[in-house]
Amino acid sequence: SHNRSWNHGAEQLYGWTGEEVLGRPAQAFFCPGLAAEQTDAMLEAIRSRGRWEGQVELRRRDASTFQAYVRNAVLHDATGAAAGFVGVAVDITEQLRNERLLRSARDYLHAVASSIPEGLCTLDDAGRVVYVNPRAEELLGWTAEELIGSDLHDATHHTRRDGTPYPSAECPLVRARGIGGAARIDDDIVIRRDGSALAVQQIQTPIEAGDGRSGYVLVISDITARKRETRDAERRLQDLA
Q1: Confidence of residue 174 (pLDDT cuts 50, 70, 90)
Q2: Residue 156: how many other CB atoms lie within 10 Å
Q3: Residue 190 exposed, middle or buried by CB count within 10 Å (0-12, 13-18, 19+)
Q4: What distance in Å separates the CA atoms of residue 150 and residue 23, rounded to the nearest whole number?
Q5: Cβ 204 vs Cβ 184: under 8 Å
């Protein structure tokens, strides 16, 4: 496959001028590192399916390389016969770099979330579970796999302290989600997977995912020991009185 056309964008991307590349083998200029079997597979796909697309490493005139997403398609002449192929390449180096940075940031955040002593859940704007850290699994008795995608109120907050049903419309956390606001309940209960009640503090904060999506972070703290200490202190004061 020899170069027949070379536009200004190709000159900027590769550094070669049209005069330098026209009529010469394309592979020799921008993908010399591509193995022969890869080139053969690419050409066979173009001949059999009429197109090929994928990620490859390409080379510039100064011998520097970059990752590109390439699309090749058969080019037909006026009679409909295959006369060659046209290729479009997009430099995706910056995109790949951003994806690596995003993965690193996500891994770091997960490491932080996994190490904090409080239970932490992230919810979408409808209150469905997106993420559950190990401490939340321990507190609630549910695994992350069991909770993800479910409505957290329906799963863990559906009953009041006296055992009566707790409609979601009456829950401060759910009401706050309806207006995109934060909420805090200092003395609350959640219903664990085994049906037992756990005394907790719950703090909910709205977040923006950065890609147009919104949601909430819910921090769940076990206050059983704190409540016990408070009762014991009150009992001691009564005894002194």
Answers
A1: very high
A2: 25
A3: buried
A4: 61
A5: yes
Amino acid, res. 159: T
Report the 10 Å Cβ neighbour count for 161. 11
Q: How far apart are CA 94 and CA 66, in angstroms?
A: 10
pLDDT for the residue numbered 92: 86
| Nearest CA-CA partner of 26 in 77, 50, 56 | 56
Mean pLDDT of the chain: 83
In the predicted model, what is the mean pLDDT of residues 6-29?
72
Q: E strands of 65-118, at which residues?
A: 65-76, 82-91
Query: Which of 224, 168, 229, 232 lies closest to 201 in space, CA to CA?
Result: 224
- Tell me which long-range contacts 224-229 makes (C-beta under 8 A, separation of at least 24): 224/198, 224/199, 227/187, 227/199
Buried b (16+ CB within 10 A) or exposed e, 7-43: eeebeebbbbeeeebeeeebeebbbeeeeeeeeeebe
Which residues are paired to 219 by β-bridges? 120, 203
Cα separation, 203 vs 184, whole angstroms: 4
Global confidence as pTM: 0.59
Give 25's DSSP letter.
B
